[in-house]
Amino acid sequence: MESSSPAAAPLVIVNPAANRGRMDAFRQVVRPRAEAAGAEYVETRQRGEARDLARAAADAGRSVIIVGGDGSINEVVNGLLAGSRRVPLGIVPAGSGNDFACNTLKLPRDIAQATEIALNGTVTAADAGQANDRYFANSFSVGLDADVAVAAEGLKRYPFMTGAALYYTSSLQRLLFGYRKCPWLTLTLDGTSLEGERPTRHVIVAITNGPTYGGGFRVNPKADHADGQFDICSVRFMPRLRALNLLPRLQKGQHEGEPEVTFYHARTIEIDCPAGVNAQMDGETMRATHYAVRIIPQGLLVRVGSNGK
After folding, report:
1. Do both 184 and 81 map to the same domain?
2. Structural domain for 77, as ranges
3. I want to staple 183 with a disulfide (CB 3.0 to 4.6 A). Which of 36, 39, 277, 299 is the partner?
């Protein structure tokens, strides 16, 4: 892809539904600062619009700033990576989890600080991923946690069900009532099939660029978003009580060494499940019988502060 034109006006995309619709504080900071910087300010009206806006901006060589959560970032990343030119991405975290922005890129949660970095921060490269025909910035996973992402949609209507609390409650719900649905999977990493061709039952298979997802669950705590390879955590099926005991350790990133847990590094992963299995990408869900996942080394240009890479 070609590089961006420095003279092109940045595009600021705001998801008004982020932060449960409580976006006035973000508008009060971001809009006047964007106007002062000569940027165009747009609020989306429907799902998919941020993707289309980001792609058009990339084709025009305009940098993009997204004000939203992980799902909003996922939309914009899908637009940017489908575009014809590489342009910088700035992020103002406005979601309930903000895993990619705050835990991977180390961006501040303070609105004014994050806005300044999104406009003028240091541009650095970050890996991205592709699963089938869709892209992701931070995480892709199948199994219980993808079922959790589906179930979480129904819990968001309850007060205080955000971020880690939402993910943890959803995880407990699936462990208690949906654990028997853990899938049988065949995994192939960089062309090598694990455990031969025999399917193995898994609780989760998590493929990430960053250390956390699900509002701070440290599933791959040593992940580096700029090393050109995925970190993968495989959790094999175990008795339900054992899984309930493991969940808090997984949340804190203390599951290394557990007998059912294996960590891998790979650039490509193929996942087969003839019965079909849910997947989540940056919190957005899909379902298929086969997933071909590949790393896109340094696929994104992102703006970070002094604490980012």
Report:
1. no
2. 2-120
3. 277
Q: How many residues does the chain have?
A: 309
pLDDT digits (tens, 9 = 90+) for 116-163: 999 999 999 999 999 999 999 999 999 888 887 776 655 455 444 455
List, in order, residues 6 or more apart from 115 with CB less than 8 Å away.
29, 30, 33, 34, 92
Place of tokens 């305009």: 62
Please tell me the pTM assigned to this model. 0.90
Is residue 184 one of the residues assigned to a domain? Answer: yes
Q: What is the pLDDT of residues 24-54, one digit of tens each?
A: 999 999 999 999 999 999 999 999 999 999 9
Which tokens belong to 19?
A: 């932060």
Please state, in angstroms and rounded to a whole number, the distance separating the CA atoms of residues 160 and 35: 34
Report d(CA 89, CA 71) in Å as an integer. Answer: 15
Distances (CA, A) of 272 to 17, 87, 162, 276, 291: 35, 34, 31, 8, 7
Total number of domains constituting the chain: 2
Crossing angle of helices 144-155 and 163-177, rounded to 10°? 120
CATH for 7? 3.40.50.10330
Does 64 lie in the same domain as 9?
yes
134 lies in some domain: no
The answer to whether residues 152 and 179 belong to one domain is yes
d(CA 264, CA 124) in angstroms, rounded, equals 25
Q: Is residue 129 part of a domain?
A: no
How many Cβ atoms sit within 10 Å of the Cβ of residue 255?
A: 20
User: At what angle are helices 49-59 and 70-82 packed, to 10 degrees?
Assistant: 40
